[in-house]
Amino acid sequence: MAFTERAGTAPSGAHSAAPQLAVLTKAQLKKLRSLSHRIKPLLIIGKNNITDAVLRQADSTIEQRELIKCQVLGESEVTAEEAASDLAEKLGAAVVTVIGNRAVLFRRSHRDDIEHIRLDG
User: Fold this and answer.
1) How far apart are CA 41 and CA 7, in angstroms?
2) Domain CRM: where (predicted)?
3) Contacts of 115 (CB under 8 A, 6+ apart)
4) pTM: predicted TM-score of the whole model, two decimal places
5) What is the pLDDT of residue 3?
6) How far is it between the farthest Cα atoms of the chain?
7) pLDDT of residue 16
């Protein structure tokens, strides 16, 4: 497998139901950043911030594409960095980069019917 996963630790030894976060090397992040230049934002976060509907859309989109770009609109109460961190934690994804009002996330898909992003070469 081209990436490793790190289990999150919950306070006081409690078990967390949150997904595991992907941990990427610098080389893998560099490759994903270069791939992200070609994609348009598929997830828009507006004045309602990160809702259950946004999370469902993000999960579905990242499962289909593995690499997604998010845009945080000006009327949102969260910054792109806060949104990226929150989405990554809830989706078990890695934050690839945050620039301005846009963020890029990566998570390996479990689907067999898509072409997976190769990170090992």
Assistant:
1) 28
2) 22-118
3) none
4) 0.78
5) 35
6) 43
7) 37
Strand partners, 4: 23
Reduce the DSSP state of residue 90 to 3 states and report it.
Answer: helix
Name, in order, each residue with C-beta under 8 angstroms of 45's C-beta and a sequence gap of 6 or more.
54, 70, 71, 72, 73, 76, 78, 83
pLDDT band of 38, cuts 50, 70, 90? very high
The amino acid at residue 51 is: T
Q: Of 91, 96, 105, which is closest to residue 42 (Cα–Cα)?
A: 105
Q: What is the pLDDT of residue 119?
A: 81
Tell me the C-alpha to C-alpha distance, in Å, between residue 54 and each of 8, 47, 62, 87: 23, 12, 12, 9
- Among 2-6, 94-98, 104-108, name the one with the lowest average pLDDT: 2-6
Question: 26 is written with which tokens?
Answer: 């610098």
Would you tell me how many other CB atoms lie within 10 Å of the CB of residue 54?
Answer: 18
Element (H, E) at 106: strand 102-106
